[in-house]
Amino acid sequence: MSTEETSRFVRLRVELVLEVQDEDEVTKAALRRLAQESGLPEGERAHAEGAVTEDAAEALAYLVDPFDLVGEVPGVELQQASWSSERIDYDPDSPEWDLDEDDGVSDGEEGGIG
């Protein structure tokens, strides 16, 4: 494919599994971030505070911002992002969690760190 035919847009997929060792610390960090946000309407602020207080997974989703991951990468501009978090059962010894398995990476693409 020539340069003219190649899209400038790249979809970067990242999957993380985090172990929450201190839910209170995660919740406090999310609440601190909310407190620092200026211009957030009070109704939205109250809703967000309730969500991050109820569930550490929600607090993590609030704390992890895709723009932070690529904001300082030279030559790129974030066009769209979506992310979510959920509690999962995790067994690192299970074949289901093998990061080396074929994940659909095709020739010419690089895989992640495994």
Determine the oligomeric state from the structure. single chain
Low-confidence stretches: 105-114
Shape: flat
User: Span between N and C termini?
Assistant: 29 Å
Largest sheet: none
Order of helices and strands: HHHH
Strand content: under 5%
How many β-strand stretches?
0
How would you classify the helix and strand content by structural class? mainly alpha
Mean pLDDT: 84
Helix content: 25-40%
Which value, in Å, is the CA radius of gyration? 18 Å
Number of helices: 4
Describe this structure in words.
With 114 residues, this protein is mainly alpha-helical. It has a domain at 21-76 and 86-102. Helix content is 35%, strand content 0%. It is built from 4 helices and no strands. The chain has helices at 23-36, 42-54, 56-63, 66-70. α1 packs antiparallel against α2. It is flat. The chain starts with 22 loop residues before the first helix and ends in a 44-residue tail after the last helix.
List the helices and strands and how they pair.
Layout lengths: L22 H14 L5 H13 L1 H8 L2 H5 L44
Short description:
The chain is mainly alpha-helical and 114 residues long. It has a domain at 21-76 and 86-102. Helices cover 35% and strands 0% of the residues.
Keywords:
114 residues, mainly alpha, 4 helices, flat, disordered C terminus
